[in-house]
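Hi D.,

Good news: the full-assembly prediction came through. Inputs first.
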Amino acid sequence: MFHKTFYGALLTACTLTFPTVGVMTSAVMAAQSVANATAERNNLSGNWILYVLQNGEKTDSARVRLQQNGNVLTGTLNELKLTGTVANGSVTGQMLRPDGKAFGGFTIQIGTQVDLHGTIRRSSGNEDILLHKIGGEDVAPQTRVFIPTKYYRVFSGSIAPVMHINSGDTVKTTTVDAGGYDMHNISRSAGGNPETGPFYVEGAMPGDTLAVTIKSLTLNRDSALSNASLIPRAVTPMYFRSEKLDDSVSGDWKLDREHGTATPAKPTEKLKNFKVALKPMLGCVGVAPGNNTSFRTQWLGPWGGNMDFHGVGQGATVYLPVAEEGALLFVGDAHAEEGDGELNGDALETSADVEFTVKVIPGGMQGEASMPRIGDSGPRVENDEYLMTMGIGGSLDEALQKATSNLAQWIERDYKLTPNEAAMVLGTSIHYEIAEVADPQVNIVAKISKAALAQISK
Amino acid sequence: MFHKTFYGALLTACTLTFPTVGVMTSAVMAAQSVANATAERNNLSGNWILYVLQNGEKTDSARVRLQQNGNVLTGTLNELKLTGTVANGSVTGQMLRPDGKAFGGFTIQIGTQVDLHGTIRRSSGNEDILLHKIGGEDVAPQTRVFIPTKYYRVFSGSIAPVMHINSGDTVKTTTVDAGGYDMHNISRSAGGNPETGPFYVEGAMPGDTLAVTIKSLTLNRDSALSNASLIPRAVTPMYFRSEKLDDSVSGDWKLDREHGTATPAKPTEKLKNFKVALKPMLGCVGVAPGNNTSFRTQWLGPWGGNMDFHGVGQGATVYLPVAEEGALLFVGDAHAEEGDGELNGDALETSADVEFTVKVIPGGMQGEASMPRIGDSGPRVENDEYLMTMGIGGSLDEALQKATSNLAQWIERDYKLTPNEAAMVLGTSIHYEIAEVADPQVNIVAKISKAALAQISK
Amino acid sequence: MFHKTFYGALLTACTLTFPTVGVMTSAVMAAQSVANATAERNNLSGNWILYVLQNGEKTDSARVRLQQNGNVLTGTLNELKLTGTVANGSVTGQMLRPDGKAFGGFTIQIGTQVDLHGTIRRSSGNEDILLHKIGGEDVAPQTRVFIPTKYYRVFSGSIAPVMHINSGDTVKTTTVDAGGYDMHNISRSAGGNPETGPFYVEGAMPGDTLAVTIKSLTLNRDSALSNASLIPRAVTPMYFRSEKLDDSVSGDWKLDREHGTATPAKPTEKLKNFKVALKPMLGCVGVAPGNNTSFRTQWLGPWGGNMDFHGVGQGATVYLPVAEEGALLFVGDAHAEEGDGELNGDALETSADVEFTVKVIPGGMQGEASMPRIGDSGPRVENDEYLMTMGIGGSLDEALQKATSNLAQWIERDYKLTPNEAAMVLGTSIHYEIAEVADPQVNIVAKISKAALAQISK
Amino acid sequence: MFHKTFYGALLTACTLTFPTVGVMTSAVMAAQSVANATAERNNLSGNWILYVLQNGEKTDSARVRLQQNGNVLTGTLNELKLTGTVANGSVTGQMLRPDGKAFGGFTIQIGTQVDLHGTIRRSSGNEDILLHKIGGEDVAPQTRVFIPTKYYRVFSGSIAPVMHINSGDTVKTTTVDAGGYDMHNISRSAGGNPETGPFYVEGAMPGDTLAVTIKSLTLNRDSALSNASLIPRAVTPMYFRSEKLDDSVSGDWKLDREHGTATPAKPTEKLKNFKVALKPMLGCVGVAPGNNTSFRTQWLGPWGGNMDFHGVGQGATVYLPVAEEGALLFVGDAHAEEGDGELNGDALETSADVEFTVKVIPGGMQGEASMPRIGDSGPRVENDEYLMTMGIGGSLDEALQKATSNLAQWIERDYKLTPNEAAMVLGTSIHYEIAEVADPQVNIVAKISKAALAQISK
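Then the structure:
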């Protein structure tokens, strides 16, 4: 049995109240999460996630909203309408399609447990279901402070969340560098992109989209680490073999935060005047990948992760497909600056203070209430100037196909364009960035300016 | 025997004089090229290309400079020093290495033919050689006008040059669009990127680099053609299959040269206000590929060709490796504008007036007097802001490797950097462009700003 | 903190004795695994795994063998020699290199806990360590029967093992098909390659190699499922788009186990006589991927998994790099037959009885006591005729490079060949198989016949 | 203007008569080809190729068959029916579709020239045409002997054919090795796959398929050359860089033609007993690529060329798409043996005697009278056991897609299968070979056994 099911019941239904600006450690979180969620069971009203069980395993899910008035239950299951009657410790009712036609019947047992078991009955057969109460009610946005004491090196739904937050909330926290060193250059974790989080977002469920807006990203120390060589994936075999590499050249950088520049910390004579402008970014923004999978934090995928795209900086909003209850958001791997492709394997790796706001958008990125189509979709990013889509794949050719299709689908949906119209727009106005070729999957970004899109008639 | 050898002798040694601004057609050119080149044979002084013959076929070449004073001959063969004595219709002499050590002996027969046959004698055996007189002397730069009457659809050394020009000369000419239509929308050629040229550049020989600077590029009509669909290579198979394409949407564009914009010629309601800024470029700049090969003008390779990179516009200099005597330069395929990747298969295809200057740089792009290393090198481009290198390959992964290595080698040579130093510079400051994924080979461009490079100490 | 550390202490030191042929369910296993491992703590003799801790997290490991005689401790740590003295609840001692030079000192606390904490002291600094007792003693091989009651859909170290076995043991068990259906066509799990296992192999530790020999693989029902279409990765976009697919054609197959053939279950007129020879194979043989990662059972990687190679049948031995204590072996996804590439997405998916023997080979696949080099190495397979290596990658080009290098390194090590000699052998005698292009990573197999290798002089 | 048009008129209409077994050199051929083709102009009956001219350039072609009785002309143009009247030095007539509807009118001028000019008149406009008389009549097959005196290093339509042969004829000739050395190890050409040919096949025209059956392929010397290293494309960058290569190891091989084996000519101690079985094959079988293009003989493409597939041996038939009049067939680059992938860059390169038969199959490989679809199609090969298709591309991923689609289209056409039925057959029974990764394009071969196909009902 998978680890996910063990902690789920304990954590998700609790109501957490934080001061607008407060401090929580994961130890405090753990204590709070044991609060008894069944206290409210005298009424079924609220938001639920419905899981379809197959041989006891959760294989599909849907969003359920219930309203109980006395023994009368009404509600929705995705686009279906529910009506039922509460009697003798269970609810029995019917599901109707949007057009009013019958979809099937259901029964839910109301026990003393946090989660409710039941059955959906259709002409094609019965399905076992399980309902789990989730948050997601409209509450006033808060700003929360999280000071991490531990960092995680997998993107995974198996890690207990360090904090529960609501859609609309803002989190102020910090990240260590890719090697696990903090703002004081003290080792806080083994290396490999240790992450801050995960943050459980109330009301987020599989099939939704999580929007993460980076309100501020501020470097908090004066050094960064990188390498002074090019990765083999970026150069020809002949170049890779023929060039003698001199490991005595340091890949360390000095950050001048006041003037916004970085210079080699121990420069060779040739590079003593070389400097680059700081352009802080987060290498990693990711949610739990779902399906009980856990990826090392060097990885990236449809769920985001180590995207290593220099467009993920202050002011950017990252859209990620939620695959687990609560989304379980991770952030980390700040870069003071990164050239295209992340050709040194590392960018200018450093620590940072970060402030981000989350928002749950019901329904997938391909359209309302639809699951992302596997392979076509990847994370999306938006800033004041651009819509940007990731294409993450095993080769640049695959990555480009995904990035282009992802962007085409985005503007077709949002601007009501036909594929031909989208082709006219993209063919003249698309721009690609090669975000990175250094990670287990490569990442190409397709982008289009909002100025170009503003010319499209409504 | 290959066609190339037949015309070579007739054309290359003639001395052409043009008015600073004149008009030549290829018919006039052909007449002039029959001028008897042997008239000057009483003295061997001058520039020659030396071919090594194997079974009568030219398999290698070198640059020879000779100075004859009476019966005393001195000169160079690449880096070797030559001394010889003219007697009885032949020259016999010795070749010395730069360090003064003996390399071998040589004999050259001085007949009445334009080309001279001879032998190089070394301890490892003899080699048959052939010397062919070439131009390349310092002459005052001229501006020449060429009005094409015929266009070519292969990059090939088998086409008789339409004009002989000198290093330093400027050519004013015109190009038709990719479909063969001229400034009056009159068909002048079958389609597929018909080219203007080829131009024979005096003194250019295999192993040299030809620099082509686009002095001006001016659109000369008010329409462009493109397509209203995305090519399969740019999108996922699922996107490609699932989207219904509507061929009734026109891919034609209207060009407003006064205001510098393009708009769909027959827009749908959605696109009635859509416009893009004109950014004229040449899709094709190429030299003869060498080795008796001929590629369709959709092709691109180390020799340039259909590079379809929007950076090849006014003010840009394109560096191409010369593979045949005279380089044989072709230009064509103007685009009014092109998005990254050339995703519609066509960009905004139109006709143009173009003015370019050529310069022969002895020696290959990897260093003086060395042949380009196959696979590592591709065309290079430079403008006021950037050094840019092409990576042309069968996949984007291969293209990126070539582009990066090409740029690393360029800055290592010109700025005397070690690979580690180059890695520090590129890792922070490289930028990629995906020029096109629409042609038989894809093209990724790696670039670095001259502002960044200016920080490198001499 | 990761789930793995919670169960580790409870399970690994217990001594399990099974009858030569017995039956264990995972429920029985769980009960036994709580046996108190500390009962033997009066003597440190035995096999241990040493973990290096960084910020409390295990980041490296080594094999330790200890022998305690009274208060005198001797032993090895990989290739280092240990000597120490037990006193006052701790051991203090020295480590010597094979050449007799000092490596550093160590202290181990002997508490009442199952695991022992300690410190390694070197001139470069101290490192926290943790020692965990493991099995791996020579015991008589046994045959064990395992009847699964639950199947798992991730390759993960987070799943409690269903059985502990020793190196040399044979396991008889069964697998369900890729959709979760058993020998009676009863659904036993959700689909997606549900696995039997994981099996904990005593004494296997990170850096070792696990050899899994398939002693028998017997189909146990008369049906298989597949699809009647080609996956997009296997065909051109134009083919994929242009061909009208008819979903009414069934992809079901009937298996004639007596005659060893499969035929379409509901054939079209054209295919009514079409049959293929059965060639049973296991699509999945994998170990836990390590580093707290969990991959869906469609995935494959250096740790094996869904390799979908038709060479993994009866008589084959699969070599996998151990990444977690006990290796945690999974098997599943039997195919009655599979064409190259697994072009229908599914092969002929069915259930099977399988009998396999495991053997722990200390040290990695690149050589004794060395960790596999990332990227160069992948699973290896051997049968009576061939040595075979997997190349698993994001593109076929990457996969081929890995497969070739993997095979070159194998024969260089085992036959003491130089790379040049290996090149002479492989250049004439290598053969490739394209195992699959249907999974999240593609798999190319490089193979060479043992008959060819037998000609190499010792 | 292109070279091709100059020689065309002189060569193609001549009637050549050879003894059944005779000897022709290219010198003799040249003399014969000047025979006056216009002598027969008193009657238009015969086979013609019709070219559509656009701005004087041939841009399309069709097969025309004419029958003249007095002043009445009848015939066909592809599937159209022609009727016309001869009067006053021209023919005027009509073209009807197969359904009897009018297609348009035509006029042909009958001058004294070999080729005839004319016009097609349709409602959509007029098109200039040119008719060129070709052979292709049924004649008794002959066996011809060709002893080459010169070899060519481009696949090109610009080379004058060395011999004209008829469909059905057999040619006995010889090939030199890839370095230009003949059966006596005498250099006959510079290296790089010098080819024997080209052979002009009467009646072959663009859009047709040329079938080349290798009747016998016999090695004619006792040595072969190869390399003792692996090419970078076949191994990981890390393997390529880390392994020290020892150039003192010889890549030469000794051939024992009596016993059918090859052994290293100067073996290391380890390889003193290493041998491989001879399996002679032709690395190159190709036709002129068309469109005035010329590719170096290392290249391969839809037109065949340097396919380097070990299945192209005695008994194999290679199907190539004709792109130029007469097809212009080249053969060369014999290998005594080749491992998959041609990993040493060279296989066991040697010279050979070859005997092949040609057959012109009207219409393209996708179906009768249709041009091959670009990108989907490549050369096909057939032997007693297998149908085999080439997938030639810039990456292995692209090559596999082309090979699979090519095979699917072949069996769909020949066995009247739907794509679903083809998927059932290929999914279980396809086998891939990785022919080579050493050339400018890689080559994957998809194959299926005739035994499997024989089970498909008619």
